[in-house]
Design a protein that fits this description.
about 300 residues, D-Maltodextrin-Binding Protein, domain 2, 3 domains, five-stranded mixed β-sheet, 12 helices
Length: about 300
């Protein structure tokens, strides 16, 4: 791929974002004809039409929509690379506004903040814990921690750690109700349901024949993982929890893992997400880098469970 081709991709992305050749040309410091020619040569190279042109407006074709996402990411990556270099000497300062899910934020982000802030005396952190998906730009957050599948393609994401689900129950529940030997046995059990589960009232498992989706039933549905964990500890039912939440209880024997031969499919991972920007701020960069180092490789909560199993 030549430099000219990469440049044309950046020009095309700017045209899409500005909504016209003339606006893009002014922003890029080029003539309108030069911008139009670059997009035209790009379409010729690809052999497809990227834009529908009328006298009043531009609109993306199906191919153009798909191609724009890659161009946008390319530009964002290039800007991030430049920003990483130009901000090396800049000391992070100001207030960093962070949103994180309730359980993960309380257990694994908040405990990391004192060490992080000690390293950056001119920086302060304002963290909001919530299990709802916030609008970063509308609500003024610099970044958010997201668990599971990512949906908002307008955000830049950096993977911090894998996500593993664990099916478990208290020994008292298993003594009274029995231990399921197969996912289909769950139909006869009281299941504790997480309200924000993206696929509704079913749990997913992975067996030798592929994915298995099992409908579940239960009288208790809660929109918070800690509350579900508390109910499971009391022996009220079987719960599907992320390993980062259930690690201590599994290690202590307050909960027992179930159906370990049926691993729940990967659910996207744990990511830091932040708005695409021409200049990633030093405060966002250093915080994301810090979390990535803290959770690098096999996260500490997974290591603790592995040592317990041994």
């Amino acid at each position: 791929m030549t430099y000219e081709h990469l440049s044309a991709m950046a020009v095309f992305a700017r045209v899409v974002e500005e909504g016209s050749f003339s606006h893009a040309a002014r922003g890029l410091g080029l003539s309108k004809s030069a911008v139009s020619k670059q997009v035209g040569r790009l379409e010729d190279r690809l052999g497809v039409r990227l834009l529908n042109r009328t006298t009043r407006q531009l609109s993306l074709t199906e191919a153009g929509t798909a191609f724009y996402e890659h161009c946008r990411q390319l530009v964002a990556d290039a800007e991030a690379a430049e920003s990483a270099v130009t901000h090396l000497a800049a000391a992070p300062r100001g207030t960093l506004r962070v949103n994180a899910p309730m359980s993960f934020g309380q257990l694994h982000v908040a405990p990391a903040l004192p060490e992080f802030l000690a390293a950056y005396p001119e920086l302060s952190v304002e963290m909001q814990l919530s299990d709802r998906t916030v609008d970063l730009i509308e609500e003024g957050f610099d970044l958010a921690i997201r668990i599971g599948q990512l949906r908002d393609s307008s955000l830049i994401a950096r993977r911090l750690a894998p996500l593993r689900q664990v099916l478990c129950a208290a020994p008292s529940y298993l003594a009274a109700q029995g231990r399921p030997e197969h996912p289909h046995d769950l139909k006869d059990h009281e299941c504790l349901i997480y309200s924000y589960l993206s696929w509704g009232r079913e749990w997913r498992f992975q067996g030798v024949d592929g994915e298995l989706r099992v409908p579940i039933r239960g009288r208790l549905e809660i929109n918070n993982g800690d509350a579900l964990l508390a109910a499971a500890r009391q022996g009220f039912g079987i719960v599907m929890l992320p390993s980062f939440l259930g690690a201590d209880d599994l290690k202590a024997g307050r909960l027992e893992p179930l159906l370990q031969d049926w691993c729940e499919p990967a659910a996207g991972g744990i990511h830091a997400v932040f708005p695409a920007s021409r200049n990633l701020s030093p405060k966002v960069r250093v915080f994301v880098d810090y979390l990535a180092r803290r959770f690098a490789g096999q996260p500490y909560w997974e290591v603790e469970q592995a040592e317990t199993a041994v």
